[in-house]
Amino acid sequence: MTFQNTREFARELDSKDTLNHYQQEFIFPKVNDKRVIYFTGNSLGLQPKRTKAYIDEVMNDWAELAVEGHFYAEKPWWDYQERFAEPLSKIVGALPSEVTVMNTLTVNLHLLMVSFYQPKGKRYKIICEEKAFPSDQYMFQSQVHFHGYKPEDAIVEIKRRDGEHNIRLEDVLAKIEEVGDELALVLIGGVNYYTGQVFDIKTITEAGQKAGAKVGWDLAHAAGNIKLELHNWNVDFAAWCSYKYMNSGPGNASGVFVHERHHNDPDLPRFAGWWGHNKERRFKMEPNFDPVHGAGGWQVSNLPVLSLAPYLASVEMFAEVGMDALIAKRDHITSYLEFILHEIDKEVESTFEIITPKNPEERASQLSVFLHGEGRSLFDYLMKNGVITDWREPNVIRLAPVPLYCSYEDMYDFGQILKKGILGK
């Protein structure tokens, strides 16, 4: 399609967009009494209107049933998390038994590393990407310290080549081969939070396992955003937060994937708790741990139902829409945003360098843009004029045109506000 930088053209695209009506399902903040253009769904998704009803249901059950809500609520609390299995399995490409919801993201990654980072002899090293999200970096450092290793010896970062913003697949595979029989674990972010680069999960997983390592993925920026086939790709484990592309609310519960081939391994260590115990015998308060079959066996504590309620509202919306429809719009609206940036670039002296890969296979719903010749003042101008975006030092803005609630007209309006912010200095 040949794009045009006009309001009429943007409105025409919106009129043909089968997901356009989902904007009405969300609550938008306002700036200057006008609905914002929201580009930070890669950090915190907007609140779906249906969320309140799901939370109110739990609150009403608590008020009317108290402790009996565990068994007699409309959605009984003791198995509330089981309602996620079917819709989440479709979002991440898993079997229903391979997914569950519990805790928060870094907590879950730590718990999964108990099972899947088992350094022994010379096989103790972890491969991760350079400039991983800081929480992952802190996690790696503390995990290797716990096992008695020094981070500078045990953590191997795959680096970008000089002058390049993204990591080449060939360099990932070469590093896995180089570390070889010293490699215990590969754990990478499926989508890099800074650049928006999407990694080849299937190929990297295969290479890591061929080297004798376990392979896991931090899917914080991937779940609900990219096409995932975790079961078919033979991924050992993964975890993701729910509050970015899946709009479950600030700091909310994390999803977990454990491949079915690990479900019956009695030698696989894990930290146990009573909510991971045999469901049918859980309330017998038995002294010995008998894990639930499947990913649910990694659960530890009684689950926070009030936190799960908004997440359930969201995954049921995803079930209505389907990942194929989301991805189709994601690719189209992201391409239109890219076009708008290039068009505005022609009209101003500043230069916009998009550091997110141009290849559609290596990017999703995020464009990270270097604003050469501009500084923090432009970001401040955008925020004051109703464009909610994200600033990363030294001068990068991250723009996520989330397909569920961003419109093509939003992309056009953003371009006009951006141009005015530069020319009006």
Structure report:
The protein has 425 residues and is of the alpha/beta class. The chain has helices at residues 7-16, 51-65, 69-72, 85-92, 105-116, 134-146, 151-154, 169-179, 201-210, 305-321, 323-345, 376-384, 408-423; strands at 26-27, 30-31, 34-35, 37-38, 47-48, 99-102, 125-129, 155-158, 183-189, 214-218, 237-241, 254-258, 351-354, 367-372, 387-388, 390-392, 396-399. The chain has a 7-stranded mixed sheet with strand order 6-12-11-10-9-7-8, sandwiched between helices. Helix 9 (201-210) links the parallel strand 9 and strand 10 (214-218). The two termini are 34 Å apart.
Brief overview, please?
The protein has 425 residues and is of the alpha/beta class.
Q: Secondary structure elements and their pairing?
A:
Elements: H1 7-16, E1 26-27, E2 30-31, E3 34-35, E4 37-38, E5 47-48, H2 51-65, H3 69-72, H4 85-92, E6 99-102, H5 105-116, E7 125-129, H6 134-146, H7 151-154, E8 155-158, H8 169-179, E9 183-189, H9 201-210, E10 214-218, E11 237-241, E12 254-258, H10 305-321, H11 323-345, E13 351-354, E14 367-372, H12 376-384, E15 387-388, E16 390-392, E17 396-399, H13 408-423
Parallel strand pairs: 4-15, 7-8, 7-9, 9-10, 10-11
Antiparallel strand pairs: 1-5, 2-3, 6-12, 11-12, 13-14, 14-17, 16-17
Helix pairs in contact: 1-13, 2-10, 4-10, 5-6, 11-13
How do the SSEs run, as a string of H and E?
HEEEEEHHHEHEHHEHEHEEEHHEEHEEEH
Globally, the shape reads globular
Number of helices: 13
Radius of gyration, in Å, reads 23 Å
List segments where confidence is low: pLDDT < 50 over at least 5 consecutive residues: none
Largest sheet: 7 strands, mixed
- Average pLDDT confidence is 95
Percent helix, as a range, is 25-40%
EC number: 3.7.1.3
Keywords: Hydrolase, Pyridine nucleotide biosynthesis, Pyridoxal phosphate
GO molecular function: kynureninase activity
Catalytic activity: 3-hydroxy-L-kynurenine + H2O = 3-hydroxyanthranilate + L-alanine + H(+); L-kynurenine + H2O = anthranilate + L-alanine + H(+)
